Amino acid sequence: MHTPIRRPRAAAAAAALATALTLTACSAGEPAALGDPETPSEPVELRMTVWTADENHLALFQEIGDAYAEENPELVSGVTFETVPFEDYTTTLTTQLAGGNPPDLAWVLESYAPEFVSSGALADLRPVLESAEGYDVDDLVPSTLELWQDGDGLYAYPFSNSPFGVFVNTDQISAAGQENPADLVASGEWTFDAARDIAAATAEDSGKQGLVVRDFDYQLWENLSTVWDGWGAAPWSEDGTQCTFTDPEMVEAMQWIHDATFDDGAMPGPGTTADFFAGDAAMTITQISRASALDGSFEWDLLPLPAGPAGQQNVIGQAGIGVFTQGENPDVAADFLASFTSPANAEKLATYFPPPRASLLDAGTLSAANPLLSEEQLQTVVVDGIEGAVTKPVHQNFAKLSETVRAQLDAMWTEDADVAAVLDETCAVIQPLLEE
Amino acid sequence: MAAAASVPVPRGPAAESPVSKATPVSKAVRRDWAVGYTMVAPVVLGALAFVVLPLGMVVWYSLHEWNVLAGTFTFAGTANYERLLADPGLADSLLASLWFSIGLVVLNITLALLLAVLLDQKLPGTTTFRTFFFSPVVVSLVAWTIVWSFLLQADGGINGFLSTLGLEGPNWLRHETTAMLSVIVVQVFKNVGLNMILFLAALQGVPVELQEAARLDGAGAWRRFRSITLPMISPTILLVSIITIVGSLEVFAQIDVLTGGGPGNSTTVLVYYLYQQAFRFNEFGYASAIAVLLFVIVLVLTLLQWQSRKRWVFHEV
Amino acid sequence: MKSEVMPPAGGNHPGAERSGGRPGAERPGATAPGAQNEPSMILGGPRQDRPPPDRPHVSRAGLRARRRWARGSLIALLLLLSIPFVFPTWWMATSSLKPMSEILQAVPTVWPQDPTFEAYGQVFALQPFAQQYWNSLYIAAVVTIGTMLVAAMAGYAFARIRFPGANALFVLVLAGLLVPSEVTIVPLFRIVNSLGLIDTHWPLIVIPVLGAPAVLAVFIMRQFFLALPVELEEAGRMDGLGRWGIFWRIALPLSRSALGAVAIFTFLKSWNLYLEPIVYLSSKDNFTLPQALTQYVDAYGGPMWNVQLAATTLTVLPVLAVFLVAQRQFVQGLAHTGLKG
């Protein structure tokens, strides 16, 4: 900086600059593997950022954290859980990282997983978890770990695995004289076409909306994957290098969504937000954890995702906990994470978050956590839903892709749009981003 | 206080006329200078520490490739600035910013002036109306925007109201022009109260005698407004428009809640674009280059406005 | 000849479309359909209400009737204009008495179907809301007083004292007006962090008082002192007051009105500050109100609207009440400031 600074200030300003500008670039590239935590010279204070503000959650976390601190007084003096509002979570996390004050551990959003995993921001947990006594890494359901792995490394623990299902408003559906979707599930006829017909007829009858893909709102298009997975469609190839929006499955699935919206009125159009839980819609595709929003003002049921032309595909939404390599004590933090997610503690956490452990995934254990759901619903939607489930589309460059695709797809959400042409254009625009 | 009978009290705007170096400076004058430096010291030091230093750091960041997640920070020379020039997204957002700022400033100032004039009529209930118009200023931005996002939906309150009049309203947030208009109007309603108060105060500062004299000369009300009131309050208009333009470049939450930058990229204004680059795409170096650009734009705009004041601002104090 | 000042009956839409961009438009109401051209009412405050002497043709009674008509129309216009300003606030306050499902209805209800105060209880049960209220209040108060003091001194010096470099320093300070907070949040965070002041209230107090947010206040104070007649200070000088004495005993007391403007600007800004507290503060006991509002979420991060709106209402109403009481003084105060460029 060559800005002339007044003399008396120069020293102080330079000092501040020096501290503020010093950026440690050491953690780039290969993340260091973690081993046994070396006992730090004095016990450290660990900090984990979370986006829940629920006092029950926080009380449970604190209980586990305090127990760990008591058992390991030479390692940690305490663990604090810092709530960051969900809306500003990544902003705040990024600012803390950029500002040189990263938390030791953090909840990581699913859609940012590949960016976090591949950037080297998170430490490899596998060695620590494998060496932790009684941890039983093999108990973790492989499909839940996929998103959080890179090669052999495991960079976050998927503490929450919430399957997508279909909530239906049986009051509205029976009032419209439609068949109960649960019967269709039983007879194996629960398909997207059937759901669309019921939704359209019910919406017509109720004057409200039919099928709502929750949180899509014509912005977060990745939520549509719960639909197009039934067609076997995907936005890009598995290795993330080729755009597949133009593949026939995807074009067909998107055309289906477009027509269900604009021709049949089975799905709400753009600019219309209908909240299923407020009784504004006949059915909604969302994570089962949203059951807590049901206030008993109407009769409802919870069903698995319908089948598409390519069969039925379960989808889960996840959240992970990772350890920042840029933190001050990644070894200690990883050791704490192993304890936080040990079989015993995982069972406690299962009260609120469907765990990734096969041994805990049974309707009996989960029903304590989800009093609103019957054991049958839990079995069909949650337990069966987690096995073999896929996640929403992700990519190392997801943030940019998400934004670019959103802007492109806007052209599709009009009545007379040429779906195939929009998807062609979308691929043309995002292909360079996929290759970045 | 020690008697310092000879403290010079300058006439006229002191800061405008530089001290001639040739004049010998007396001890009393020097003491007066010292008082001056002491008085401005807090804000000057504050500006250095909390404005100039951070800006300098942003310039420094803009010369680097900074991936916050990976913790990499490598010198990149002017690469980020070269990227600025070739970035079509940036051009779009500049255009969006331009429309947004123009729309906001014109609407905001017009409405603020209209409200101020109406409230200056000493009608019954003026106090209440003043509070009405001012109230959004104190309401939390997020709550304000959310209510409007409900109202602006395709089947929301506004179109419901229009349909009772037999009109079919557009899908406000989903068409490029109406989306931008909606964002502007929501923002105008939120903040116009403050500008209205400033105008109201300015109107009340216009000497009654001038108005009376013009009226006796047979000048109509509109003519009086144009020839007397407007020139008399033009300094306030300048101040208000500076504040509004600068403020218009900081709009963020409104766009995030209402349109998310769409449809297409039509409401992705510069600050929103900057925010995306920095906090969503983790491109801190590039975001810093955009920040530098933003600063230069605001600086130039403000200077232009300030320079042009002599042409249309009636009196400089 | 009928004077232009004479309002034709039924003038109701004075200059609704008068935009700054069309200075030549002689008939401002013409663009608004149905609006009569009645410009005179624009300026027809009481001070102009006395009929000028040269008005022989119209009877007093007719004039009064017309004026009553015009006033009625103006009030109707004001009422209409109020709707977009008041409805959202009204909705916010009443929705805090509604259950969640009613809040989320696409077409808002004007009055809750089944009002309940339950959400207000939860506001205090879920978080140390009283503590957070106090945090916001004291931070805003300290920032306001600090800014008034700092800005008054700087404004006075920039306006009155001819020290070398005054112009350059003023421009330097003004630069703060031009920097959006999104631009400097990361470097400021680094500075605050390197000083070890994360999760304290210091950055929320010191940066606004000394940094960019104070610049507008400095600007307002400088303009005020520029407009203040120098003669007022002469007397103090005669009495043997020094520069500080003149500032403290004469200039500062005279600037009450400008200080009032600065106070309300500053208080509101601090009261509504959002991004900075979220970035700087991490423990609930330290939170400020806008940040606390975001914490009323259910187990899955979804907002508890009724509780959020109840809390929002609690943060808005006191400020509105203060404004309602103090507005006359505030506006008049501003009117006498040198807020003139």
TrEMBL record, chain A:
SUPFAM superfamilies: Periplasmic binding protein-like II. It holds the Pfam family SBP_bac_8. Gene3D superfamilies: Periplasmic binding protein-like II. Its main location: other. InterPro entries: Bact_solute-bd_prot1, SBP. Belongs to the bacterial solute-binding protein 1 family. PANTHER family: ARABINOSE-BINDING PROTEIN-RELATED, SN-GLYCEROL-3-PHOSPHATE-BINDING PERIPLASMIC PROTEIN UGPB. The lineage of its organism: Bacteria, Bacillati, Actinomycetota, Actinomycetes, Micrococcales. CDD domains: PBP2_TMBP_like. Keywords: Signal, Transport. It is found in: Cell envelope. This is Sugar ABC transporter substrate-binding protein. It comes from the Bacteria. Residues 1-25 form the signal peptide. It comes from Myceligenerans salitolerans.
